[in-house]
Design goal:
Blueprint (H helix, E strand, L loop, with lengths): L4 E11 L5 H7 L5 E3 L4 E4 L2 E6 L3 E8 L6 H12 L3 H9 L3 E10 L10 H9 L2 E8 L18 H20 L1
Parallel strand pairs: 6-7
Antiparallel strand pairs: 1-5, 1-6, 2-5, 3-4
Helix pairs in contact: 2-4
């Protein structure tokens, strides 16, 4: 590996009312998770104790070991460019979309640049760039097998939502 980090990317869309199937059909991508506004959230066949306030659509795009994170994002943004009208409509209707990047530092100091061109292409698609950065720990062993796999982002978010719903239910009792 020529970099001192790992990454994984997802495309995420939120919309006040649209059914997530609209994005699946328009983008021709299969989502990993969806929520329908006004309906209980579901994950991995399990009903969550919270009703979705907005529709949500998430598709894991993964990573490419041959590309750094910025090059991968630029490649994905160019691939989505033919669907600009879809992203224009999402923004016009009060929704938003983002590239969500899980960034895993494998050294004390690492980084990358987001070129003006990448930022321009993302801006034209109304795509935010969201980063969750998981820091380097000096006590980790340098053996690759010692590095944990990226966390299941949906599982982390679901646990937070369950805790929030429980706190709100307890507060209103």
């Amino acid at each position: 590996m020529f970099r001192d980090y790992r990454y994984t990317v997802s495309l995420r869309i939120w919309h006040p009312t649209a059914h997530p199937d609209r994005f699946t059909e328009a983008l021709r991508l299969t989502p990993d998770a969806v929520d329908i506004a006004g309906q209980p959230r579901m994950r991995k066949g399990r009903v969550m104790p919270i009703v979705a306030k907005t529709s949500y659509w998430c598709c894991g795009l993964g990573h490419d070991p041959a590309l750094d994170v910025a090059a991968f994002l630029h490649e994905r943004a160019r691939a989505l460019s033919p669907h600009r009208a879809v992203f224009d409509a999402i923004a016009e209707e009060g929704g938003w979309a983002e590239f969500f990047v899980g960034f895993f530092a494998e050294d004390f100091n690492c980084g990358f640049d987001l070129s003006p061109e990448l930022q321009r292409v993302c801006a034209e698609l109304h795509l935010s760039l969201g980063f969750d950065v998981y820091g380097y720990r000096a006590e980790e062993v340098e053996d690759e097998s010692a590095h944990p796999h990226p966390p299941d982002v949906d599982a982390v978010l679901d646990a937070a939502l369950v805790a929030k719903a429980a706190a709100e239910t307890g507060a209103s009792s």
